[in-house]
Amino acid sequence: MQAVSNKLAERLGDAPAVVHPEYKARADGSTMKALAWYGARDVRLIDAPIPDITEPDDKVTGTTICGSDLHLYHGEIVQLQSGDILGHEFMGIVDRVGPNVKNIRIGQRVVASFQIACGECSYCKQKLSSMCDRTSTSGLQNAMYGHRDAGIFGYSHFTGGFPGGQAEYVRVPKGNVNLLPIPDSIPDEKALYLSDILPTSYHAVVDVGVKSGDVVGIWGLGPIGQCAARFALMNGAKRVIGIDKVPARLKLAHEKSGIEIIDFSVHTDVVKRIQELVPGGLDVAIDCGTFHEPKTLLHKVEKALMLETDVSETVNEMITATKKMGSCGIIGVYVGYTNHFNIGALMEKGIRLIGHGQAPVHKYWHELLGFVEAGKFDPTFVVTHRVALEEFPALYVAFDKRVGGVEKVFVETKFSAHAAEGTPKLSRVVDWE
């Protein structure tokens, strides 16, 4: 798949952009530790050149692994190339600053938006940073979608080919736009997730229109689903029902957030179970799950044979379980084409199906920073482990298999401060049960 997509992208050529993913190494030849992709389920910690200044560079103090990184790990995102540095959720300390950057200073703690915005196009002026027209050169995405989104750190050449943040240093294009200064009162463990999971989960809840009195179903209780459940309750939802099969995730959602849960390995007919719990159907359903784990044999076969890239099972369940004229939102990552989509139920029931897109981080991160600073939302409830950067290859394996109840992991570098009070202490993946 990668060879075909890269060849097709080469034929289509690059789209115009105001930033480019290539960077030059520092003249002194210095290197850094970084996590790179070399094939499906083959990620390696390598010594890579430290990037020289083009826009600001970050010295990364904290990074993490995201559920959507598993799509890369399995080679399910097109246009991956051997040696690509992964990682889109990170924060750090500014190490160098380009001449056009006036609002960021060396030594400042900052969190990076996972997408790269230009700050000047019509979308950026509306704070819709993920829809930026000018920071990705992906001709293939342009051809598939009719448009292209903003570039994304560490998420293949389909999203621009920018080296990512699972490394000790990162070049941040348009740093005057894409970095948010963090006050000293907020530790790294609370600030890091302003890069992705907090804006993403909040965007899903806001964009789908959760309101007071709603009954909300959330498919997938990874970090996005866990945070979305809490934001739904903050927005006034009367009931929130989480659907998953991982015992640790179900337990966390029920015990820490107080939501109702459905284990779909027990209740295999999810729609029937929801109809038992909520006669008449859900007001709102949100897909916070994944397309790379099909449930049924039919989709497993079709996906294995590349007759589809994505799976429609969750979306079909949501449409069927949601009341007439209700709303369904998709924040889980989908990239291509699916079979057996229940378009008839969508039309006949008058369902509002919303593709949320990549979350526009810039639209929300000041508001969310305020939530964190005021103690209104503490993201550390999803942080289950802390490991060193050197653990990344083992972490991908453990995270993929959900070993040891892993939910969200803080990955420290040699620049990180000690673990904040109340957060997990440093451990090794091999020691997880």
From TrEMBL:
Spans traversing the lipid bilayer: none
Keywords for this protein: Metal-binding, Oxidoreductase, Zinc
Signal peptide per UniProt: none
Name the UniProt record assigns to this protein: GroES-like protein
All copies of domain Alcohol dehydrogenase-like N-terminal, residue ranges: 59-183
GO molecular-function terms, A-Z: oxidoreductase activity; zinc ion binding
Gene3D superfamilies linked: Medium-chain alcohol dehydrogenases, catalytic domain, NAD(P)-binding Rossmann-like Domain
Entries under Pfam families matching the protein: ADH_N, ADH_zinc_N
Keyword check for Ubl conjugation: no
